[in-house]
Specification:
The structure holds two protein chains of two kinds. Chain A is mainly alpha-helical. Chain A is 69% helix and 3% strand. Chain A contains 14 helices and five strands. In chain A, the strands form two sheets. Chain A has a two-stranded antiparallel sheet. Chain A has a two-stranded parallel ribbon with strand order 2-5. The longest helix of chain A is centred in the middle third of the chain and has 31 residues, at 229-259. Chain A is globular, with a radius of gyration of 21 Å. By secondary structure, chain B is α+β, with helices and mostly antiparallel strands. Helix content of chain B is 30%, strand content 15%. Chain B contains eight helices and nine strands. The longest helix of chain B has 27 residues, at 15-41. Chain B starts with a helix and ends with a strand. The chains are: A mainly alpha, B alpha+beta. Chains A and B meet through α5, α6 and β3 of A and β2, α4, α5 and β6 of B.
Chain lengths: 400, 259
């Protein structure tokens, strides 16, 4: 097998520092947003006692799900022994770590008492899926960190497959855990199903691959390194499979619900009467997130790099819409404590809850994305994560 | 002491001084005796060093047939007892905590209307306790489902899990309506405690039940569901009652008649 040369990105051009500065600015905005929420309380957010998890959770869960998906490329290289993916693996691992960091920061900074994070690290209730996730996240950092080490340090290279396999199994468990955060909730009609665990896994495949493709393409375009069509087309084909699988799971989930009378009301809400949530579902999740990318990638357009990038961006936007519907849509639909009866109270029982995200929430969420990209931008300057060339010739040699 | 004695020996005795010593002695005696008397008065309450007992299960019976339309005395009493700002006075009503609320139900077919108070149902198998990452949500041995103010991190997972929408997050810093024996604070989740401070004082009832009784409606009965001789146990034997969302099998501490 031919060897590949990895090299740090020089990162001294004004363009690099402008990117760095722009991302840094959004991180700063995120910090200010957190400070505002922490100082005044959640009263400055659009969240209330009806919609208790708002936009920060949409961003946080999206990033956490995408993080485990971003590791896929590395997993294909080590676990499934595909040599073509080996040069792509280090970026995959660092992106996974960066996305998880961004997601977790948004999650913990949205706590009512974010100053008590140490309490979450020292008091555990092992019946809680949240507690399990604390261990799953820290374990992910440890395992992917070790895996990255085996990729970068030749002296421990022999452990790469073992570390990669461990990280792969861990990321499957992690996303099962993230899906189960909702799957283990009995109160709300759209949750409380084991479907959510595998669905979140397949969502992670799609989101992670879309983000990986965009970061890879940007990194190679902006550093003037060669990125051949062989890599692009291979990753694009994978993205097609993942996006189609997401659509399949979404269809099965809603079709199953539609079969049960007790879910008819909530399904009618999401699919037909839910206003913004219905729009988010059909236009955001289904059309922008699944159908449009599939059409682009499977048609002649999918041969052009610009269109592949557009498809990736659509998958990300659709993913955020899917999270919005999953997290906020499920809360907007009122709890049905007395089936068959109309409910009314001072606590907004029986009515659809409205939600308008506030500026601090938006900037906290964007701050999470910015920190993930900032870490990645800095990491490729600091470490030899990117091959000097990924042109078709170099890649072809790997497979022989 | 000897120095003090010698000093007082030198000081001429005065009527003022005698009165002062007399008053001081009486105050000291009073301070010594009163707590004892207080303790005697609440002897049927639980001493602070004694843990809550699982021999007791506090519960409430709501007779929806007696719950009056338009009456919210239970809500007002809860706010007063626990130091909550009434939702009508809140500048952010959607974010204002509500521990108990009046629920108006109507059957769309028959038009029959039902009134009832809804609050934490103090489940024997509480979903909020299951999901709480830090263990801040907990069930006390005597059946009360409470939140430890010191370990709640405000993640709101319990609010996502509760099928009764019983919990509220304190969205903004609290004003001075707070009560010393009802710890609350911004960023933490809270809900009905069955007036745990009153139970531990030995009152044996809650503010909402007292208010309902005082108004003459008598729709609420509170007591020990484990004690077959308690009023609530007797009533529960007589009246057909239901649990809200009984399908979830959470074994609720609040039972409803007339729903």
């Amino acid at each position: 097998m031919a060897s590949i040369t990895f090299r740090e990105v020089e990162g001294s051009s004004p363009k690099y520092w402008m990117l760095f500065g722009a991302l840094g600015l959004f991180v700063l905005f995120g910090a200010i947003a957190w400070n505002t929420m922490h100082h005044y309380g959640h009263v400055v957010t659009g969240m209330d006692n009806q919609i208790v998890w708002g936009l920060p959770h949409v961003f946080a869960v999206f990033l956490i799900v995408a993080a485990s998906g971003a590791l896929n490329v590395a997993s294909i290289a080590s676990v499934f022994n595909k040599p073509m993916y080996k040069p792509l693996a280090p970026l995959s691992a660092i992106l996974a770590l960066a996305l998880l960091l961004g997601g977790l920061l948004v999650l913990v900074l949205d706590l009512g008492r974010s100053d008590r994070l140490i309490v979450a690290m020292t008091h555990f209730n092992f019946k809680s899926m949240f507690t399990w996730n604390v261990f799953l996240y820290t374990g992910f950092f440890g395992l992917v960190g070790a895996y990255l080490w085996t990729m970068l340090d030749r002296t421990v290279k022999t452990y790469s497959k073992a570390a990669g396999t461990a990280a792969f199994i861990w990321r499957l468990v992690l996303t099962t855990g993230t899906g189960s955060l909702f799957g283990f909730l009995i109160a709300r009609d759209l949750y409380g199903t084991a479907m959510l665990a595998p669905m979140f896994i397949i969502m992670s495949f799609a989101y992670g691959m879309a983000i990986y493709l965009m970061v890879l393409t940007a990194a190679y375009a902006w550093t003037g390194r060669a990125l051949g069509d062989a890599v692009m087309m291979r990753l694009k084909s994978l993205l097609v499979v993942f996006v189609a699988a997401v659509l399949y799971f979404v269809v099965v989930h809603h079709m199953t619900n539609l079969y049960f009378s007790k879910y008819h009301a909530v399904e009618a809400f999401i699919l037909r009467d839910g206003g913004i949530f219905t729009t988010m579902f059909w236009l955001g999740q289904v059309v922008i997130g699944c159908v449009a990318p599939l059409v682009i990638l499977m048609s002649g357009l999918g041969k052009q790099r610009t269109w592949i990038m557009i498809a990736c961006a659509l998958v990300v936007l659709g993913g955020l819409a899917q999270m919005y519907v999953t997290i906020i849509g499920a809360q907007a639909f009122p709890l049905d404590m007395f089936p068959g009866l109309n409910e009314k109270s001072s606590f907004y029982d029986g009515v659809v809850h409205s939600y308008t995200p506030s500026m601090p929430e938006i900037f906290l969420g964007l701050g999470g994305i910015a920190i993930a990209l900032l870490v990645t931008t800095f990491a490729v300057k600091l470490l030899s994560l990117l091959p000097v060339s990924l042109d078709d010739e170099t890649v072809a040699k790997l497979e022989h | 002491m000897s120095e003090l004695n010698s000093k007082s020996d030198l000081t001429p005795a005065s009527p003022e001084r005698r009165r002062f010593i007399g008053a001081a002695t009486a105050t000291a005696a009073g301070l010594t005796i009163v707590p004892g008397v207080m303790l005697y008065e609440v002897a049927h309450g639980r001493p602070e060093d004694q843990a809550a007992s699982s021999a007791v299960r506090w519960g409430m019976l709501v007779d929806a047939t007696k719950c009056a339309t338009g009456c919210d005395d239970c809500v007002t009493a809860c706010n007063t007892e626990n130091g909550l700002t009434p939702v009508a006075e809140s500048s952010n009503p959607k974010q204002a905590p509500q521990w108990i609320r009046k629920l108006e139900l109507q059957d769309p077919l028959t038009q029959m209307e039902t009134n009832l108070p809804m609050m934490c149902q103090h489940c024997a198998e509480p979903p909020c306790v299951d999901v709480c990452p830090t263990g801040a949500s907990f069930k006390r041995a005597d059946g009360l489902v409470l939140v430890d103010r010191h370990t709640c991190i405000g993640c709101r997972y319990c609010m996502m899990a509760c099928p009764y929408k019983a919990r509220s997050l304190v969205h903004e810093p609290l004003n001075d309506t707070q009560k010393p024996d009802v710890p609350r604070g911004v960023g933490c989740v809270e809900s009905c405690t069955f007036c745990v401070q009153k139970i531990d004082r030995g009152d044996g009832t809650t503010a909402c039940v007292e208010a309902c009784t005082a108004s003459g409606h008598n729709a609420l009965v509170f007591g020990d569901m484990n004690d077959p001789e308690s009023e609530i146990s007797k009533k529960l034997r007589e009246l057909p009652t239901k649990q809200v969302r009984a399908d979830l099998n959470l074994n609720l501490g609040v039972r409803y008649h007339g729903i």
